[in-house]
Amino acid sequence: MQTNENPTAGTADPIVRFENVTKAFGELVVLRELDFSVAPAEKVTIIGPSGSGKTTILRVLMTLEKPNAGYIYVEGEPLWHKRKNGKLMDADEGHLRKVRGSIGMVFQHFNLFPHMTALRNVYEAPVHVLGMNKEQAIARAEDLLGKVGLADKKEHFPSQLSGGQKQRVAIARALAMRPKVMLFDEVTSALDPELVGEVLSVIRELALEGEMAMLLVTHEMGFAREVSDRVVFFDNGRIVEQGPPEQLFGDPQNPRTKSFLGATLRH
Amino acid sequence: MVARFSVGSERIKNGIFFVIAILIVGTAFGVQMLAEPPELPPFDLLPSLLRGLSTTISLTFWGAILAFVVALITGILRSSQSVVLRSISGIYVEIFRGTSILVQLFWIYFVLPLDPFNISLSAFQAGVLALGLNVGAYGAEVVRGAIQAIPRGQIEASIALNMSRGLMLRRVILPQAIVRILPPFGNLLIELLKATSLASLITLSDVTFQALTLRQTVGRITEIFTLLLFIYFLIAYPLTLGVRWLEKRRQWAT
Ligand SMILES: Nc1ncnc2c1ncn2[C@@H]1O[C@H](COP(=O)(O)OP(=O)(O)OP(=O)(O)O)[C@@H](O)[C@H]1O
Ligand SMILES: [Mg+2]
């Protein structure tokens, strides 16, 4: 089902591709032979009921959760497997680190490092993981904090920031690693309502800049409609329906999509 | 927030001042005693007792360093992903926590020189080793607990930033764990100091050994052992104050 109006999406080789991916927690099957891909620079939003497995899609891609079966490719390279004599073997830590380098993630609960200032939260990994020169990394971290509107908070510790500010630092921190795909897992749902807007506008700007692919899980339907090239309705471990936002929100085909959207819109 | 911070630093200042004051007064008192021991009893016994002081202090010092290193390494291994490393470190901890430190000391001093080990240690080395390994085993559990108390989200954020396990440990986990580790380590240090008295039983001439010798030569049992209590207390009390100070000073830990 490739009904995408983004001219770059769908034509180029996918930057992320799930092939038959299954993930279960004990008896509970959360992803069922999932096939799914994201094109470079594509903005994809995943929506669906609670517990349907949306977060799990992001987590297996970030290597926080290991799939039980299937393959995930990042820029054509298998993520959880290593090619060896034409076969795919289980990947080791080194391989995981090599491939997941092009993925970044922003979490629902920020997960900032509480013992580091906002600035150091942002430059720590570029210096120690990418081996960037410290002065350059700090200069870039300052730029990024400026970009998310927090230039004046760089010396603050996370405990001295509001939820919205923390989340913006977390976005800057993830951006500092220059990911090609960024994952956002309900990044505004732990925030007080009046702080949601400032975080969404930062993400909106990133979406407009364009070159980074984005995979978002959100309950903010208006926002999904606005920034996405494609919206995926996910339920019970499967993609039920997907398409450009105007189509999925305006003219959903599947009855499950209809009833889900009906229920959320009525809220 | 700002108000809490300034109250905190006020307390810190008071704490530092108090600890330093006690240390200065205590040291001055000790030096005074050593320089011109008062003739009147029981203080005429002090010079002989204090002859063991340097042994007691260096046993504490080296034992603490060994215990710290052992606790850190073992505590990290206890939290490792490898079943083998976890089991080995677990066995060590259980053995050293589950048996008497006195027996461990005897074992290291009397059994290690025999077949099949043939490792002869001086009494001092044996004392440091027994104290370090015993207290290190308790410390390892402290380290393990502190590492496991780190929220899962911290580890996930480190993975998302593509950190290696070593980097994550050094830059994310240990700096946060250390805040929880230090106060209980202070308590273990006091335990260690008190346990050094056992080394007198393998011929080390610490303050307790001096006391036992004095008892045989001059008698005056009440005076000797009361002074001994005070000596241990005077060394331990600054440590106790230091621990209290650390407990209060937990910055961003909440
Ligand atoms: N580590 C885990 N162990 C056991 N079960 C888990 C684990 N992680 C997730 N699950 C279960 O897997 C299912 C899917 O979880 P997931 O977090 O992916 O859902 P979701 O679509 O993101 O839901 P929500 O909208 O509530 O965030 C849920 O039933 C959840 O309870
Ligand atoms: Mg979720």
Question: How would you sum up this structure, described in words?
Answer:
The complex is a heterodimer of chains A (267) and B (254). Chain A is α/β, with parallel strands linked by helices and 267 residues long. Helix content of chain A is 36%, strand content 25%. Chain A has nine helices and twelve strands. Chain A has helices at 54-61, 93-100, 118-128, 134-147, 163-175, 193-209, 221-227, 245-250, 255-266, and strands spanning 16-25, 28-38, 43-47, 69-74, 77-78, 81-84, 87-90, 103-106, 181-185, 213-217, 230-235, 238-243. The model of chain A is unreliable at 1-10 (pLDDT under 50). Chain B has a single domain (53-253), classed as MetI-like fold. In chain B, 78% of the residues lie in helices and 0% in strands. Chain B is flat. The A-B interface holds A 62-64, 93, 97, 100-101, 103-105, 107, 109, 111-115, 124-125, 128-129, 157-160, 173-174, 177 and B 1, 151, 153-154, 156-157, 159-165, 167, 171-172, 175-176, 252, 254. The complex binds adenosine-5'-triphosphate and magnesium ion. Residues 54-55, 186, 217 of chain A line the site of magnesium ion.
